[in-house]
Amino acid sequence: MARHLPSGAVHVFGTPAEEGNVRDAGGKVPMADAGLFDRMDAVIAAHAEGRTILKQQLISRANLEMDFTGKAAHAAGAPEKGINAMDAAALAVMGINSLRQHMTPDVRIHGLLTDTGTSINTIPAFARLRYGVRARKPETLNNAIERVVNCARCCAHALGCEFSYRHSAHSYYTMRHNMPLLRAFAANLDLLGEPYIEEVSSSYSTDMGNVSFKAPSIHPYITIGGAQLVGHTPAFAEACNSESGFNGMLLAAKAMSMTGYDVLTDEELRRTSRNAFENLDDLN
């Protein structure tokens, strides 16, 4: 007997430019800001992984570019006339590293010193630091950003450099996992015969976190190989282009579709997931 669906709609959104250090990285952020998810009863995403995991602790993240501008001079003939931007940036790296001892364990600070010139005979007039800062709580992230920027600014001024900074990509929010939707997804993994891990601590970040502040959302992980796989590596790329990767893609599509069907047909699921969203601790 055919089962008639209640009125409703399924929207399929592309996921542009999640990764990278450019301003447009994190494509779901402007989508969320534009209100594309505001009226959704559920937003379901899945991500490839070495293991199948219902819930990872995905944390807030900001990308920074910090610029040091000094004054060029001949490094041997007139070094006293120069202001070394590279030295100021290198001093800032050491200063930022010294902050780590005084941060909470969830904070991650990682970066690069770039654009420091091409000639050893010239005092570098410009240098740039590119840093990522992550933290579990948004307020902790903001505090960490302030301390990193202040450290870099002070090092620049100590050596006579001008200093400026900017956010070089959209900031990612902490993921707010909707547990009623996750339980429905887990039940469908059971039906598909796929074992899974309930929860894993991590320090990853995703623009799906921003979506989770707009609508009930989940972001489980589906295996495409084995537990030894590490993201952003050649081995992970090879796994994506393998039979295991193809099977993982199909498994994710089935579980997502089945969970979407549950949302359409189960009024109680819609009610409990909406209630959980409206009363959710941001750091569940």
SSE blueprint and pairings:
Blueprint: H1 28-33, E1 43-44, E2 47-49, E3 53-56, E4 60-69, H2 85-99, E5 108-114, E6 126-135, H3 138-158, E7 162-167, H4 179-191, E8 197-200, H5 208-211, E9 217-218, E10 221-223, H6 234-240, H7 243-265, H8 267-278
Parallel strand pairs: 1-9, 2-10, 3-8
Antiparallel strand pairs: 4-6, 4-7, 5-6
Notes on the structure:
- This protein is of the alpha/beta class and 284 residues long.
- Helix content is 36%, strand content 18%.
- The chain contains 8 helices and 10 strands.
- The chain has helices at residues 28-33, 85-99, 138-158, 179-191, 208-211, 234-240, 243-265, 267-278, and strands spanning 43-44, 47-49, 53-56, 60-69, 108-114, 126-135, 162-167, 197-200, 217-218, 221-223.
- A 4-stranded antiparallel beta sheet has the order 5-6-4-7, covered by helices on one side. A two-stranded parallel sheet has the order 1-9. A two-stranded parallel ribbon has the order 2-10.
- Helix 2 (85-99) packs antiparallel against helix 3, helix 4 crosses helix 7 (243-265) and helix 4 crosses helix 8 (267-278).
- The longest helix is centred in the last third of the chain and has 23 residues, at 243-265.
- The chain is elongated.
- It starts with 27 loop residues before the first helix and ends in a 6-residue tail after the last helix.
- The mean pLDDT is 91.
Please name the defining characteristics of this protein:
single chain; 284 residues; alpha/beta; four-stranded antiparallel sheet; two-stranded parallel sheet; 8 helices; 10 strands; elongated
